[in-house]
Every structure is written in C-alpha cells, then in structure tokens.
C-alpha cells in the first residue's frame, strides 16, 4: 500500500454500513506502529469509510464492504507521527494533525493534501466545526493555544491562549470542550459568529486527563454533557445542560485484582472513550487490553470484552451504531522494556448494536 493509491470512483456507493457477519474482522494492511487516532466518516454518503492515524507518520483509509470486511482505499504520510484525525461534515476531506506542528487537509477524491493550520509545537487535536453562521477547523496544541481556522486563509480567525498544553478535546455543536495538562477543563459555545468561552470546570479526577468525548441525550439527540477519562482508571461524567434527574459521577474502570487479595489492584489508564450514537451507552478502552460497555443512566457496567494481547489504544462507532472499531497496540504504559516489535498493531471491526444496548430500554 502506497500513497499512490487513490479513490477508485468519484464517490463511494452509499453502503448501509452494517456488518453482516457476527464475527470480528481485522482491517488489512494496518499501520506499522500504534494507532493514535481513528474515526468513521460522519456523512451518510461515505459512512462506510474509516481512517486511522498512527505513530508511523501515516493516515490510512479503508472502505467497509457489506460483508463486513475492509478494503484499503488510500494512504497519506506526514513527516512526523500523527496525533489526531477528523472528517469534515461532508465526509470527503480528512484533517491530519501531526507532531510536525502542522495540520494537513486530505482531499479523498483527488488524493491530494494541503497544509491548513500551524502551531509552534505538536498539534494534539483537530475538530471540524459546522455551525449555523460559520464553518472552521479547531486545533489544539502543546504550544498552549487553541486556534480556529477558515480554510480559505493561512491565518487563524481566532487564537485562544491557554495556561497549559492541550491534551484532549471534542466538538459537538453547539459545544466544544477542551482538556489541558494540570487537569484543566474549558467549555465553549459555538453559536453566534464565533466560539465563545463559557467557563472552566474543576476536574473531578485525581490524575491526568487522557481522553474526552461529548455525549447526547438519546431522545432529543442534543449534546448534554461529556465524559473525561484519565490515567488512573476512572471516567468522569459531567453534565453541561442542567437536568434535575441527572448528576455528575465518576466510574472506576480498567482495574484488576492482584492475586487473591481483592483490596490490592492494578490500575490501568483509560486510553479512549466513546458513546454509542443510538443507545447512548459508554465504551471505555483501556491499557489493560479490554474494552467495556457502561450504562451511564444507572452507573453500571454492561459487559467487557475478552482480554487482548496488547492495549486498546483507540475506539469509535460508525454513523448508525452498527459497527464498533478498536485498535490494539503497545501504548508504552509499561516502559520500553515491555515493547515487543514482533507484535504488530491491529484494527478490529465488531458488530455492536446488540452488545451495546442498555439492559433497560
């Protein structure tokens, strides 16, 4: 697979994105290093496409066939590792944030890329914002800034100076939430002519944030809060839209007893979290090589996967919630001495609609 591969047609056929097999399948030609970011297309027209960025400096795209198997479609490279990827709302462009301090936009139709953003340090997050009065790209960096870009200009339309490096972020109109080093949390509203700072939020977690995801009310499909994962094996659920029946809480997860003493446990980092687009259930992916489904309405675990032979580094659901994708690879949580070069990263697709249902509907 090389960057000479191109999309075979002007627009892929609109497959429903349903995996017809009950078994897990692996995407062919995975990256050579651990997956750092992964996302399905948010567009109905291209919802059968998935991209993954990696520490091997590449972003790869696969097409999911109705059989459930993935076919490599294209690949692009940058000069340093990829830290984040995101799609535009039409599902025909992918943004690639890199350690080389740049963000490139990949046009999947032409298989060409162009630089669209820059920082003074590695770019940790990128998110496309489709608001009522504007469209732009939001980028967060280790240079302690959050920038917003109109792709028609080489200069940001807005720069927000933060007190710490950006570690994680998410966007779901009309909200954006940003997590920084020293456990900073900042909420922005995207309505109006430009993003507006709302408030900083005191983190309920004791250790560093590792991942963040906004979730929606299942009935109204409007954003109401976010989950924030940490390196201490906890996930906090925070509501930003006030509801008398909902309270903020914290889940303990990715913990394992040592030996026969239940009070002595190993604690693993939460590497990624996501919310099912239909059921609203939470999935957590851990350094303990397991992913787990949670019902956040009743604060209860639903089920966990079997243990894999490597950590789960990233996960995501497709647009209609039929497919769960997750990557396994070494996350360096045990240090360099535990790295086994013979174990290659993998990206696994699994039917998930039934597994992720809450017990009480």
Gyration radius, to the nearest Å? Answer: 19 Å
Strand order of the largest sheet: 1-30-29-28
Give the N-to-C terminal Cα separation.
44 Å
Mean pLDDT: 91
Major sheet summary line: 4 strands, antiparallel
Beta-strand content estimate: over 45%
**Class of secondary structure makeup:** mainly beta
Which series of helices and strands comes N to C? EEEEEEEEEEEEEEEEEEEEEEEEEEEEEE
How would you sum up this structure, described in words?
The chain has strands spanning 25-26, 35-40, 49-54, 58-64, 70-77, 82-87, 93-98, 102-107, 112-118, 123-130, 135-141, 145-149, 158-161, 166-172, 175-180, 184-189, 196-200, 209-216, 223-230, 234-239, 249-252, 255-258, 261-267, 270-275, 282-286, 291-295, 300-304, 312-317, 323-328, 346-351. With 361 residues, it is mainly β. The strands form 8 sheets. Strands 1-30-29-28 form a 4-stranded antiparallel sheet, with no helix packed on it. Strands 2-3-4-5 form a 4-stranded antiparallel sheet, with no helix packed on it. Strands 6-7-8-9 form a 4-stranded antiparallel sheet, with no helix packed on it. Strand 28 and strand 29 form a beta hairpin. It is globular. The model is unreliable at 1-21 (pLDDT under 50).
Give short descriptive properties of this protein:
single chain, 361 residues, mainly beta, four-stranded antiparallel beta sheet, 30 strands, 0% helix, globular, mRNA export factor-like, repeat
